[in-house]
Amino acid sequence: xxxxxxxxxxxxxxxxxxxxxxxxxxxxxxxxxxxxxxxxxxxxxxxxxxxxxxxxxxxxxxxxxxxxxxxxxxxxxxxxxxxxxxxxxxxxxxxxxxxxxxxxxxxxxxxxxxxxxxxxxxxxxxxxxxxxxxxxxxxxxxxxxxxxxxxxxxxxxxxxxxxxxxxxxxxxxxxxxxxxxxxxxxxxxxxxxxxxxxxxxxxxxxxxxxxxx
Length: 213
What we know:
Elements: E1 5-6, H1 7-10, E2 15-19, E3 28-32, E4 39-43, H2 44-48, H3 55-59, H4 64-72, E5 75-77, E6 84-86, H5 105-117, H6 121-130, H7 142-145, E7 149-152, E8 169-173, H8 175-187, H9 193-211
Antiparallel strand pairs: 1-2, 2-3, 3-4, 5-6, 7-8
């Protein structure tokens, strides 16, 4: 791939670049399918109409009737990992006919990491491990405070939808700490010890990246 177009521009495909046109001269796109995470070459029609899955994944999808029958029995099939799981493993989605997300919670998180933060699940787990398995500010584990959000420096990369990249990513914070640090930074007040310690670790990382030590 060459120059990348991020998913919020290209629709459901989370990374795209213009490919070599076919014999007919019609444009083609190098993309990554959000369903199977495999690189695919798609047509201009699929790109413009934002067809969210590659053709192989489309063929493996259930019909609406099959989905409703399975949900009625207390289960749903994840559209990404293809595993049939209890309904408790799916977040709510009022826009879906079943009232649930089409991806399980794990796959939803993994898709969001790739699309919004350019992170793989392994990157997330590695960052969590570097924080001793807890929030980067208060140290509480996810089991107590819930899923940790990816915190980033808005001065480096102020995306309107809150997306981040390796250059601006700082660490993982619980919801309360993420809101607290954000509000304090907006006011220019970061004098409390926990916030100072967290931001100091990020500043040291910037120095190491800049000087290669």
